Amino acid sequence: MYKIVKKRRLNDTVTLIEVTAPAIAKKARAGQFIILRVDEYGERIPLTIADTDKENGTVTVIFQIVGRTTMLLDQLEVGECLADFVGPLGNPSEIEGIKKAIVVGGGVGCAIAYPIAKALHELGAQVDVIAGFRSKDIVILKDEMEAACTNYYLMTDDGTAGEKGFTTTKLQQLLEADSSYDLVVAIGPVIMMKFTVATAKPFGVPTMVSLNPIMIDGTGMCGGCRVTINGERKFACVDGPDFDGYAVDFDELMSRNAFYKAQETHDKEHVCRLTGGVRNYE
User: Fold this and answer.
1) Which one, 65, 114, 220, 274, has the greatest CB density within 10 A?
2) Would you say residue 184 lies in a domain?
3) Measured between alpha carbons, how far is 12 from 207 in angstroms, rounded to an integer?
């Protein structure tokens, strides 16, 4: 059993928990994820490892309340335990040798972008973070992001915090002003990652994205997380989750991610916050 030792609400629908898992904390690296079950009857859900504390043997994950399992997870309090907490899974982000990077996070994607920005910063790279949200009410990890980068740019669609505009607007400005970046990292809604890649491409900067297709077992056995990379079939859980953004078939990925949309919206009390986020980048 894996005990929750810390819980913090980041906004109305996003929660951070710190879980005791010494073996995972010891081995995990930026970009990897875990799969958990709330109880023995629950479904398996993947969550990116947001941070680790090797000394205390804890792993931090951040989740958005978007369905039954995340609702049940959010109901657990400090001192209660998870049935399963398996990892680290997936490949670590390939960031060795990077000297100057832009890390772009969209909405809850900032929870995945944060550990990569932090790892780059700890390696001595210049890290410029662009964090995008619809409004100030849903901004998360601002202090953590600022501490893990050289420059932090907060963008909101309505201008209620930071600068008004999209993450791609700021990315365009940074790339036009400086041609020496050797990596762009984009993590967020698929449509946001697609347009981030399109923005970076004319500048020829390598662009890495972290993909989040439907995933079940996290070992490549089920095939549910298949994605098309350079025309070839790959599995996000074992071949990723990071991929070359220029090689990703984003249109196929969006189509696959929407496959169960009817079932996900069947419960009229459930409102998917990501849907609004995607519309803002169309």
Assistant:
1) 114
2) yes
3) 31
Long-range contacts of 126-129 (CB under 8 A, 24+ apart): 126/99, 126/100, 126/101, 126/150, 127/101, 127/102, 127/103, 127/151, 128/101, 128/102, 128/103, 128/152, 128/153, 128/174, 129/102, 129/103, 129/104, 129/105, 129/153
**Is pLDDT of 277 > 50?**
no
Residue 67's domain comprises 2-89
Question: How far is residue 152's CA from residue 107's CA, in Å, rounded to a whole number?
Answer: 15
Helix 190-200 with 250-257: angle, nearest 10 deg? 170
Residue 281 has pLDDT above 80, yes or no: no
Number of domains in the chain: 2
User: Do 19 and 111 reside in the same domain of the chain?
Assistant: no
Find residue 235's DSSP bridge partners. Answer: 226
Q: Is cis: bond before 241, omega within 30 of 0?
A: yes
Residues 6+ apart with CB under 8 A from 165: 155, 157, 159
Q: pLDDT (tens digit, 9 = 90+) per residue, 251-273? A: 888 887 766 665 555 444 544 44
CB-based contact 203:169 (threshold 8 Å) = no
User: Taking the complete model, does pTM exceed 0.70, yes or no?
Assistant: yes
